[in-house]
Specification:
With 62 residues, this protein is mostly helical. The chain has helices spanning 2-16, 18-30, 38-47, 54-61. Helix 1 (2-16) packs antiparallel against helix 2 and helix 1 (2-16) crosses helix 3. The radius of gyration is 12 Å and the shape is elongated. The model has no long low-confidence stretch (mean pLDDT 75).
Length: 62
């Protein structure tokens, strides 16, 4: 079930960036079965660069 939800949220987050995270959070609040940590985890996984330096990644996250 979580795989399906992640695959539903992933294109929104990747295509729209921060606005996509906001939209996915709204979707999360409307549809009760979506676990609340799923959207921020998905956003962090897809929006933050994996090869960036630690401080640079933290700065982008803030």
């Amino acid at each position: 079930m979580i795989e399906k939800l992640t695959s539903l949220i992933q294109p929104i987050v990747v295509e729209y960036g921060a606005v996509g995270v906001f939209l996915a959070t709204l979707l999360e609040e409307i549809i009760a079965p979506i676990p609340s940590p799923l959207v921020p985890l998905t956003a962090g996984f897809f929006l933050l660069p994996p090869d960036g330096a630690f401080l640079e990644t933290i700065w982008q996250a803030i």
